[in-house]
Amino acid sequence: MTGAEHEATANGAAEDAAAADGDAAAAVPKRDLAQLWVCAFLAVLGVLVIVDAARLGGFSASNDPIGPKPVPIILGVLLFAVAAFYAIDALRGGHGEDGGAHAGERFDVRTVALLCAVFVANALLIDWLGWVISGSLLFWGAAIVLGSRRYFLTLAAAVVLGLATFYGFAIGLGLGLPAGVLQGIL
């Protein structure tokens, strides 16, 4: 190996080492401590849910021997656990990334406003039309607003979902959703 080849190899090795050091510095994640505010909010919310559930009276019935306390207490503990794990992740340098097809796009106010309109329409129509029709319109409208362009297939799926939830509540939970104009038919 000549002196020029040896010098080129040494320079190449030095450049590779410098690039590796730069990659190592770039690989160290930056901490986004603003996420800790979200963690704190989730922890406070979890504690509030647990405290509020603990204050519930001792309600029980023959068909519900455990009462209403366990579910909110479990949810409060889960909220607190999510806050703890999220805080650990944030302190280790983790951060959320929008890696989807719409990464970097601005917040779409129009879509949110249309979804709110669909939910308000459902709330206004549920007593008059009943759950099956208003729920189907809710599911269909939300799917269309969120980008579905297969209108008839989406409508069919929405009707099936509306009927399934109606009978799921009626048979599975023993709760009656409003039948509206379909009273006596369902």
What does this 3D model show about the protein?
The protein is mostly helical and 186 residues long. The chain is 68% helix and 0% strand. The protein contains 6 helices and no strands. The chain has helices at residues 3-27, 35-54, 70-91, 109-129, 131-145, 151-173. Helix 2 packs antiparallel against helix 3, helix 4 packs antiparallel against helix 5 and helix 5 (131-145) packs across helix 6 (151-173). The longest helix is centred in the first third of the chain and has 25 residues, at 3-27. The relative contact order is 0.08. The mean pLDDT is 81.
Radius of gyration: 28 Å
Contiguous uncertain segments of 5+ residues: none
How is the main sheet built? none
**What's the helix count?**
6
Helix percent band: 55-70%
Give the N-terminus to C-terminus distance in angstroms.
90 Å
Strand-residue fraction? under 5%
User: Which class of secondary structure composition applies to the elements?
Assistant: mainly alpha
Give the helices and strands as they follow along the chain.
HHHHHH
Beta strand count: 0
Tertiary shape:
flat
Q: Mean pLDDT, nearest integer? A: 81
